[in-house]
Each structure stands twice: as structure tokens, then as C-alpha cells.
Design a protein that fits this description.
- Keywords: Membrane, Transmembrane, Transmembrane helix.
- Pfam families: TRAM_LAG1_CLN8 (PF03798).
- This is TLCD1 protein.
- It comes from Elachura formosa.
- By secondary structure, the protein is mainly alpha-helical.
- Helix content is 74%, strand content 0%.
- It has one domain.
- Helix 3 runs antiparallel to helix 4, helix 4 crosses helix 6 and helix 5 packs antiparallel against helix 9.
Length: 252
């Protein structure tokens, strides 16, 4: 990657940050459910989740399109390259930077520290991919998780709004479980196997492998939370009476 292309990529990331800043302002105009309006601590979280939902829809469909349009990329995870994949990584990097700033500037760092850790990992990994032009296919595979995040975010929005239709939540609960396996656990497991078997544990490869293994641990933890919350509520501990207004958990 030449200096000119890197500068253009930085501009794309900056443009993405601006786009999500505009979406955040637009989210202010979206009507809020009474359950959100009545609890001031939920207002920021509601708006933040709406922006997250927009990113999940755009990035998830974009990742699917990139792999469908260029399936040959899957045969070269380390050095495969596509303009669409590069743009997607820049776009999502901008979202993670924007969301980090949103959390910090709105004084939500303490309650949303898990997101800050996740975003730091994603931003550092994506920047290394943009600079070197390597492992972009791995990033596109990882961004398939955004398809899962569509239904995960809908789940959280439904919980916050106290939607009066249990059937809607129940339907989303099972869809969420299926897509969690298909678009979060499966790509993550495949990439972990690939990196441990084929990628040299040195330099960028070592850095990305370490990131991937830490992400594995986080995803398994979130999955156990999801199962306890939606399918085995009797196993939940310490949740009674907990006020999560304003908090942004990956799973709650």
C-alpha cells in the first residue's frame, strides 16, 4: 500500500466517523417509547443502539455481498484483496471510532467498558489490515458478525421499550440464536482454526492471532450470557433488581 492509498483510506475512515455522527443526530428525531422517555438513563443507550443497528444492517449486508460477489477471496485469506472489502473495513473502522467517542464523551466508559475493550481490539486490528493490505478477507469474514448483531440489537431495543408483544420477542429470540451460530460462532471458529494452523506467529500474524483468541473468549462469554438470559433464566445470578439504565452491555 502506497502513501497515497493510505491517505485515501484515512480519509474514508474519517468520512465514516462523520457519517455515524450524522446518524447519531438523526437518531434524536426518532420517536422514543414511553419506557425509554420515562427513564432518562435509557435515552443515550436507545440512541446509541439505533446507530449500532444502522451499522449492523449496512456492514452485515455489505460483508455478505463482498463474499458473494468475490467467492474466490475465501481461497486466500492472508493476501486476498477486493476494493469492496477494503472499503468495508474502512467503513466499520469509522463506526468503531465513532462509538468509542460516543461512549467516552457521554461519560459511559465505566458501564460500557466491555465495548471499549472490543472496539480497541477491532480498531487496532483493522488499522493494521488497512496499512498492510493483508488479511482483509479475514476482516470481511469477521464482519459477518454484524448480521447476527442486527437481531441482537433488535432484542435489546425490544427489552428497553417493554414491547407489549411477547410473540415478537420470542420470534426474534430464536432467530437470534440461529444467526448467532451461523454468522458469529461459525466464522469465528473457522478463522481461529485457520490462524492457528496456517498463519505464522510473528509480526502482524502474532498480533492478529492474539486478538482473535481474546475475541474467542469474549464471544463465548457473551454466548453463555445470552443462553442464561433468554433460555435458562433460572441460572442467572445477581440480576434481580439491577438497574441497567444507560449501560451498554453486549448481552444483558
Amino acid at each position: 500500500m502506497g502513501p497515497g492509498w493510505r491517505a485515501a483510506s484515512a480519509a474514508l475512515v474519517g468520512g465514516s466517523v462523520a457519517i455515524f455522527g450524522a446518524l447519531r443526530r438523526l437518531a434524536l428525531a426518532v420517536p422514543q417509547p414511553a419506557a425509554v422517555r420515562s427513564r432518562p438513563g435509557r435515552v443515550w443507550r436507545w440512541r446509541n443502539l439505533l446507530v449500532s443497528f444502522a451499522h449492523s444492517v449496512l456492514a452485515g449486508l455489505w460483508a455478505l455481498f463482498s463474499l458473494w460477489h468475490s467467492p474466490e477471496l475465501l481461497s486466500d485469506i492472508q493476501d486476498g484483496y477486493s476494493v469492496s472489502g477494503h472499503l468495508l473495513v474502512c467503513f466499520s473502522s469509522g463506526y468503531f471510532i465513532h462509538d468509542t467517542l460516543d461512549i467516552v464523551f457521554n461519560h459511559q466508559s465505566r458501564s460500557s467498558w466491555e465495548y471499549l475493550v472490543h472496539h480497541a481490539m477491532a480498531i487496532s486490528a483493522f488499522v493494521s489490515l488497512i496499512v498492510t493490505g493483508r488479511f482483509l478477507v479475514a476482516a470481511v469474514l469477521l464482519l459477518l458478525v454484524e448480521v447476527s448483531n442486527i437481531f441482537l440489537t433488535v432484542r435489546m431495543l425490544l427489552k428497553m421499550s417493554n414491547v407489549p408483544s411477547p410473540a415478537l420477542y420470542e420470534a426474534n429470540k430464536y432467530i437470534n440464536l440461529v444467526v448467532y451460530f451461523a454468522f458469529r460462532l461459525a466464522p469465528q471458529a473457522y478463522l481461529t482454526w485457520y490462524f492457528l494452523r496456517y498463519v505464522e506467529v510473528q509480526g502482524q500474524g502474532a498480533f492478529l492471532t492474539a486478538n482473535l483468541l481474546l475475541l474467542d473468549a469474549m464471544i463465548l462469554m457473551y454466548f453463555s450470557r445470552l443462553l442464561r438470559s433468554d433460555f435458562f433464566p433460572s441460572l442467572r445470578k445477581g440480576s434481580a433488581g439491577r438497574d441497567v439504565d444507560g449501560e451498554k452491555f453486549l448481552i444483558d
